[in-house]
Specification:
Layout lengths: L8 H9 L18 E4 L6 H8 L9 E4 L1 H7 L4 H9 L1 H8 L1 H8 L13 H9 L1
Antiparallel strand pairs: 1-2
The structure holds zinc ion (ZN).
Zinc ion (ZN) binds next to helix 3.
């Protein structure tokens, strides 16, 4: 996408420090060089936000550090859709995976469906 920018070292460091070096979503510790910069509001909405709100989705307030797995999985999803997709996983596995159903039946895996709170949200809760 043409609006994606190259980050300076200072910008990368600012994003990295937002969560103290952890993935904003799953909370896993990440190395600086492994960190991926996620657009919380996906870049596919770039033009809309620019035109309607005069907001640049490359601004710091729309950026969070993410591990590769979370960044790949979130992809173009909004925060709400990413959360819903995660919360839906036990049902998807139950529907699609024989291995999962067998593991549950034999007590090797215990489904614990619950509301997903992202790591960065626990940080916000503490500062407010
Ligand atoms: Zn993660």
């Amino acid at each position: 996408m043409g609006n994606r920018k190259r980050w300076t070292a200072a910008e990368r460091e600012s994003v990295y420090q937002k969560t103290g070096g952890r993935c904003a979503y799953c909370g896993k510790a990440i190395e600086r060089r492994q960190m991926q910069i996620d657009h919380v509001i996906p870049m596919e909405f770039y033009e809309t936000y620019k035109v309607v709100d005069g907001r640049d989705l490359n601004d710091m307030d729309n950026l969070l550090p993410a591990c590769r797995s979370c960044n790949n999985y979130k992809d173009t999803l909004t925060l709400d859709k990413f959360r819903a997709a995660l919360e839906h996983m036990p049902l998807v596995l139950e529907r699609d995976s024989t291995t999962y159903r067998n593991a549950v039946r034999f007590g090797l895996v215990t489904p614990t469906p619950h509301k997903v709170t992202f790591y960065f949200e626990t940080l916000n809760a503490r500062t407010h």
